[in-house]
Each structure stands twice: as C-alpha cells, then as structure tokens.
Amino acid sequence: MGIYEELQARGLIAQVTNEPEIRELVNHGKATFYIGFDPTADSLHVGHFMALCLMKRLQMAGNRPVVLIGGGTGYVGDPSGRSDLRSMMTPEIIQHNCDCFKKQMERFIEFGEGKAIMVNNADWLLKLNYIDLLREIGCCFSVNNMLRCECYKQRMEKGLSFLEFNYMIMQSYDFYYLFQHYGCNMQVGGDDQWSNMLGGTELIRRKLGKDAHAMTITLLMNSEGKKMGKTASGAVWLDPNKTSPFEFFQYWRNVGDQDVLKCIRMLTFLPLEEIDKMAGWEGSQLNQAKEILAYELTKLVHGEEEAQKAKTASHALFVGGGDDENMPATELTDAQLADGSIGVLELLVACGLAASKSEARRLVQQGGVFADGEKVASIDAAFPAEKLRIGVKLRKGKKVFHKAVLKA
RNA sequence: GGGGGAAUUCCCGAGUGGCCAAAGGGGACAGACUGUAAAUCUGCUGUCAAUGACUUCGGUGGUUCGAAUCCACCUUCCCCCA
Asked: Where are the beta strands (DSSP E) in A56-208?
C-alpha cells in the first residue's frame, strides 16, 4: 500500500487535480509540496495540526515538504470560509504570530538539510510592484471566473473588499514562485482552499506551460456538519498555555460516538489494521476508543509524559479515587478573604468557573456546584481559611474540576 | 458621483416615545436520564450590596418629564443607477 492509498483509506484526501499523476508522484517520493499557514493567531490549532500531520506522513514516504509561513498573505487576509471581513493585523502582530508558528512547527516537522524547509512569503510578496504584478499576473486571471468561486460567492451578499479579493492572486503567486525557485510541484491545503489552489496551478500552466498539482485535505467535521477543533470559547490550541494538555485531552475524550473512528483514522498515526478492529466497537466499548483518541493526540501534541498525566487526571476525576494532582488549580491570597473566609460566589469567580457573581449564583441555585464532593446548597456558603489551606476541590457541572488553595 | 435601505444582547431576529434588561429561535451553561456520547425533557442566559438599583440596542451630540424608538452629524455595510 502506497502513501496515497493510505491517505485515501484514512479519509484525508478531499480533492485532487489529477489522481493518477499525484498517486505516482507521492508514492515514489517525487513530490515537493507546500502547505501555507497564515499567521492569524499566536498559536497553531487543530486544523493546522491536521495539515502538519499530513505533511509528516508525506515526508515519511520520501516527499519533500515546504512550510510556507504567510507573513505576506497575512497582510491581505483570506476571505475563504469567512462571512465577514477579517480585522487587519499590524505588522508587529503578524511578525509575532509568525515567530510563534515557527516554534511550534519545529516540534512536529524536521527541518534542515535534505529535510523540510520553511519559507516566508513576505520575502517575495512585500517586494512586488503593483503595476508589474498587474501586467505579469493580473492578466492571467479572469474576474468572471474568480467570482464564480465558492469562496467569493459566499461573500457576494455580505460584502467583499478588493483587498480580500486579491488573496487568491497572492496565493497563486506563491505557488508560481515556489514552483520556479524550489521545484515545488504540488500544493496541499484545507478543502476550503481548493479554488485558491487551482488559481496557482492555472497560473503556472499559463505562464510556464507546465503542470503543477493540488490536493486538498478533508475538513474535519463532526456529525452535525460543524468544523471540529472549536469550542464555545474558541479554537482548541496546540499551545499548552492557551489550551492545557488536560483540556486538550478532554476535548477529544468527549467527541460524539459517530465521530470517534473518523477522528482516529484521520488524526492519529495508529496503523490502519488496528483502527479497523475498532470499527466494530459499540456502546460503552466506544468509550475506550475515545480514550485512545485523546491519549494519542495529546501524545503527539504535548508529548508522552503530558498525555499520561492528562489520562491519569481524567481517570481520577471521572472513574473515582480522589487524585487531584493534575487538577487545574487557583491560588488564593489572604487579600481575597473577608473575615477569614470566602463565599462560594466569590470563590467560583476567583477560580474562573463563573464569569460573574450572577452566573455563580445561578449555578449554585441550580445545584451545579460541588465542593469536596458535597453539593453546595446555599449561595451563602463560605469556606474558612483552614479549609482552603488544605485545598478545596470544586466541581462545576459534571465535567469541570478545579482546586482552590490558599497560599500559605 | 446620485438615490434608497440597514446596524438590537453570544448569534439570528422582533421591537417605531413610557407596559423594555428588550418577544421568538439557535447556541452556551445547569438539572433529570446516561457511557465524560447522542437524543429527550426541565431550568437558565446584562451586572450588582438583588421584591430594588445600575449599565446596554453602531458612535457623538440634541429634542423630550421620559429615547432601542424622534432629529442632526459621523462610522460601517447592503441594494439600485453611473
């Protein structure tokens, strides 16, 4: 089984420009492919992670990865999959985000001589001259065709600025540039990038009369058709300071039944035979699959040690015992106490379990708050200093645990 | 450049002088049921020293006893004409 077949079996390939040629290319390690990452935040998220994994798989099969950091395209902003205008980022923020991306990527992909390379499109895009670009590249694009692209169609009602309209041209130019300077013959990206990527292959064909390829990765959707890797409070980040390994673990531990196998197949590096065995699992046995998924992913992103810790903590909290070693905790100071104790409401807010005291009040009144295993019955409940010094284990709802400790 | 419309709470969306902290839906959160899943039902969803008070309907001023609602200007967006 070649790498192409494996990717297919894992459900990772969404669309390709020319299947036989791409199959030939990647199965024989003859592809030099690039994936672009726009510095839209100061950490990578799950979507990026999928792309990096794909990169790694292709690299293991002998192909050469090129990581493109969008230091230049970040100035423009990709309208794909967006219903509104992206807020414009300052050069400082873009630079900062680029640096953060670089650091995180080095954990997943090996860079260096004969290995992966990293380039930044700021190096060539920022130098472009408007008139030259229009004459050289602009003439190759049909506005009529561009407007037919899905990524713009969605924006025709809400408004699309000329700035964003140019994103496709920038991305196409990247491919054109990499094709010439790095021998890059394939672009890989999320499925929402399809039209932007075709812009590149088209440009190469028109300008150079040569064929380049494009392959898109299936977007990871849950059974409700929503993009995975998002929580109510935002993306699931790879940066442990933004999404702790425990939270990361729990996110995957809690995916729906219908989505577990798909996630394992697409995201982990477990052998396919092993995954196929799980396909028959049902009911509570599927719970095991979720743990495997959570463990494997946490291991990939945060390392084996953190994965083990997260798993242990999860077991302690949900299966029983009372191990609170890896529970998220908040340290209180004497200043937060009044008359040697602190009320539940204040405590919940201090620990970040409630956004306001009103919310805390609601939680307690609805019976959703537990302290050391006991339901907190009244909003007037208070915790004395002696108790806090030992540590109070708080539970909000069924799944949110937090420890509050008074600093000695 | 000319004309017409729009902006409401996390999102969609009602509200055209007092009965508005603002209908309805979605989401989120909590309870019951469960397997840390899904479905379902219930509650809840601005803040606070909480039968009350305070802040919020794009922004800034104004009219009024009283403004999400009326007026002026500004900002952003949409539609039509060029």
From this structure: 64-69, 117-120, 186-190
Q: CA A189 – C1' B36 distance (Å)?
A: 33
Closest residue (CA) to C1' of nucleotide B44 is: A362
Q: At residue A37, what are phi and psi to the nearest 5 degrees? A: -130, 115
Q: CB under 7 Å from any atom of strand B: which residues?
A: A 85, 156-161, 224, 232, 250, 253-257, 283-284, 286-287, 290-291, 314-315, 317-319, 349, 355-359, 361-363, 366-368, 396-400
Q: How far is CA A100 from the centre of its chain?
A: 14
Our measurement of CA A376 to C1' B25, in angstroms, reads: 33
Q: Name the nt closest to A365 by C-alpha to C1'.
A: B30
Provide the CA A82 to C1' B73 distance, Å, integer.
Answer: 33
C-beta separation of A214 from A21 below 8 A: no
pLDDT in tens, A364-377: 999 999 998 889 98
- Token pair belonging to A175: 């491919």
Distance separating alpha carbons of residues A259 and A95, to the nearest angstrom = 36
The 3-class secondary structure across A249-314, one letter per residue, is HHHHHCCCHHHHHHHHHHHCCCCHHHHHHHCCCCHHHHHHHHHHHHHHHHHHHHCHHHHHHHHHHH
Q: Residue A238: which residues within 8 A CB-CB, separation 6 or more?
A: A43, A44, A45, A46, A48, A49, A104, A301
The pTM is what? 0.87
Per DSSP (E only), the strands in A117-175 are 117-120
Q: What is the pLDDT of residues A335-362, one digit of tens each?
A: 888 888 899 999 999 998 999 999 999 9
Q: Nearest nucleotide by C1' from A84 CA?
A: B77
| Residue A368 near residue A353, CB atoms below 8 Å | no
Q: Which nucleotides of B are covered by protein (CB under 7 A)?
A: 27-32, 34-39, 43-50, 77-79
Count of other CB atoms within 10 angstroms of residue A117: 18
Number of Cβ atoms within 10 Å of the Cβ of A99: 14
Distance A316 CA to B55 C1' (A): 43
pLDDT at A279: 86
| Helices A245-253 and A283-302, packing angle to 10 deg | 150
